[in-house]
Amino acid sequence: MSLHETVRTTLRDRILSGALPVGAALPTTAELSVEFGASRGPVRQALAALATEGLISTGQGRVPTVMRAPFAHAIDDFFSFSAWVTAMGRVPGQRTIELALRRPPASVAAALGVGGDTRAVDLVRVRSIDDEPVMIERSTFVEHVGRLIFDFDPDAGSVFTALLDRGVSLEHGEHTINAVAANDQDAAALDVAVGTPLLRVHRLTRSAAGEVIEVADDRYRPDRASLIVHNSRTRTAPAPSAVRRTTTEGSR
């Protein structure tokens, strides 16, 4: 790990753990340089990265201070967004932008394992915590599952819970995590500037029989949500093709 990444990771852990609470001033660049045995360049690079994540506020002539820490979401537990938020004692919310039956793009059709002429159901929603937008969710469901969403109000709560209640088998999830710049729709939905770095989770949801039910693209504001993956030395090592992917089981 590079020196600036060491500084960034250490400070980030202190912020997320509460050791550096919201509103607290960070040590000066000189003090951090002494602590980490680094020149000011790597320290400033680390602070800039933390500012980009929304964890600290910086400015010319101002001491960097801690902003609100993001909510930590463990994606190795395959729970719904609503269940996660409720478990934190917060209020989940959702606003549907689009619900449509259409032919999916070729890449999505391939991921769903359907033909190019087969229709699927697209669902785009903004998910919120205490009325603050945190994530934009784009899901494409195979038609026989997605059509069920038209029978209830997706703004009323968890779509996954509603599908489970209707007998849909949602048992396995595969998550690929990366970063993406906010496009126009992301920016408007999440109240951020176009080009803002977002934390993206590409998800495949399978039934107990292995059928792909959903292909999803979830984009989180990194200043409001962080993702946690728990690992154990005793778990079976993943195959080389799955190194960048986390597989979970349960109900989302």
UniProtKB/TrEMBL annotation:
Extract the Gene3D superfamilies matched here: Chorismate lyase-like (3.40.1410.10), Winged helix-like DNA-binding domain superfamily/Winged helix DNA-binding domain (1.10.10.10)
Xref: PROSITE patterns: HTH_GNTR
One of its GO biological process terms is: negative regulation of DNA-templated transcription
**Presence of the UniProt keyword Cell division in the record:** no
Keywords assigned = DNA-binding, Transcription, Transcription regulation
* InterPro entries associated with the record: Bact_HTH_transcr_reg (IPR050679), Chorismate_lyase_/UTRA_dom_sf (IPR028978), Tscrpt_reg_HTH_GntR (IPR000524), UTRA (IPR011663), WH-like_DNA-bd_sf (IPR036388), WH_DNA-bd_sf (IPR036390)
Positions of the HTH gntR-type domain: 1-69
Which Gene Ontology terms cover its molecular function?
DNA binding; DNA-binding transcription factor activity
| Disordered: annotated span | 233-252
* Domain of life per record: Bacteria
Under CDD domains, the record lists: WHTH_GntR (cd07377)
- Protein name per UniProt: GntR family transcriptional regulator
